[in-house]
Design brief:
single chain, 263 residues, alpha/beta, Tetracycline Repressor, domain 2, 2 domains, five-stranded mixed sheet, 12 helices
Length: 263
């Protein structure tokens, strides 16, 4: 019979946060229950609530831990002259993002966009950058499919897929230069975990990645829904967007008509 080691309070909390990083990197926040977390940690729900008052508190603690680690690994002694200090810090940042790509993309690419505490963490990171004479900006790359009604937007999605040959789509992805990148691999995981219609969350469609590599998600909906989605990302702290669509010119006209005036 295995003997369970009794952990200190701090050690148990660190263990749970490490587990949270693993869980929230693999699955959206809404798909993970307290029961899931307790079962994976092999503890009771009561003990989990002892450390974190709610699932949301647990999620915020996981994000804060990741941010603290990022600050730590990118810190470079002030004795190192510029521009070498900036180069070392940037190299450390990129290495961290590559090593923790799934969690990083989960944070900036989906879930958490409407959470004020997550937005506060981003704001704190920006403030810290300012104190070091730097500017931190976040960008987001996505496609847009907007129509006057949600039904029309979803119909446009169906028409887009109707022209897709699955084998050709796979060939396109495989021969792309970024087909083996961590970001593209993560997008494939999100696509595989989406619902039957290809949506990983409300109004965020992953099916477009079946025909291409690189940017593999599209915001789909009526003008109000698309604008709300973009505003949620903006509320998180993302202030630069690269948007596209199919056919390019036609979708540009629709975005200019229905989306940009509201932003």
């Amino acid at each position: 019979m295995a003997v369970r080691t009794r952990l200190s309070v701090d050690a148990r909390r660190e263990q749970l946060i490490a587990l949270g990083e693993e869980l929230f990197s693999a699955r959206p926040f809404d798909e993970i229950s307290i029961d899931d977390i307790a079962a994976r940690a092999e503890i009771s729900k009561g003990l989990l609530y002892h450390y974190f008052g709610s699932k949301r508190d647990f999620y915020v603690a996981v994000v804060r831990s990741g941010v603290a680690t990022l600050r730590e690994v990118t810190a470079v002694s002030s004795s190192v002259p510029e521009p070498e200090r900036t180069r070392r810090s940037l190299d450390a940042y990129l290495a961290y993002v590559e090593a923790h790509a799934a969690g990083y993309l989960r944070l900036v690419g989906s879930g958490g966009a409407a959470d004020p505490e997550i937005a506060a963490i981003i704001a704190d990171m920006r403030a810290r950058a300012v104190r070091h004479g730097r500017t931190l900006r976040l960008g987001y790359r996505t496609h847009i499919i907007v129509r006057e009604t949600e039904a029309e937007a979803r119909a446009a999605v169906t028409r887009l897929l109707s022209h897709l040959d699955a084998a050709e789509g796979e060939a396109i992805r495989n021969r792309s230069l970024d087909s083996t990148s961590t970001g593209v691999s993560r997008q494939a995981e999100l696509r595989d975990s989406s619902d039957d219609d290809g949506y990983i969350e409300e109004h965020l469609w992953t099916g477009i990645a079946r025909a291409r590599s690189g940017c593999g998600a599209a915001i789909v909906g009526d003008p109000d829904q698309v604008v709300a989605k973009l505003r949620a990302y903006m509320a998180l702290g993302i202030d630069a967007f690269i948007l596209s669509g199919y056919p390019h010119l036609a979708e540009c006209d629709l975005v200019a008509k229905h989306v940009l005036p509201a932003l």
